[in-house]
Amino acid sequence: MHGIDTPEKGELFYKEASEELSKLILDKTVQLIVSKDEQHDRYGRLLAYVYYKGININSFIVEKGL
């Protein structure tokens, strides 16, 4: 998720963040917006803004403190 440093597996709050994200978008059709400036992180993973039903999921996760 572009602009977010999410907890990695084994880190604090990984389980909570993962569960919340799953509730929001698992098995749903989402829209991904990829920046032209920064398309991949240092590990080669795609960076994107995730939208579901017009909601910016990236911002939502940050607002929830996850």
Instruction: Calculate Rg over CA atoms.
Output: 12 Å
Find the count of extended strands (DSSP E, 2+ residues).
Answer: 3
How does the helix and strand content classify structurally?
A: alpha+beta
The N- and C-terminal alpha carbons lie at a distance of 12 Å
Unreliable residue stretches: none
As laid out across the biggest beta sheet, the strand order is 1-2-3
> How many helices?
2
What best-fitting shape do the alpha-carbon axes yield?
globular
**Main sheet?**
3 strands, antiparallel
Kindly estimate the percentage of residues that lie in beta strands according to DSSP. 5-15%
Helix content: 25-40%
Question: What sequence of helices (H) and strands (E) makes up the elements?
Answer: HEEEH
Mean pLDDT: 92
Please supply descriptive tags for the structure shown above.
3 strands; alpha+beta; globular; 2 helices; 66 residues
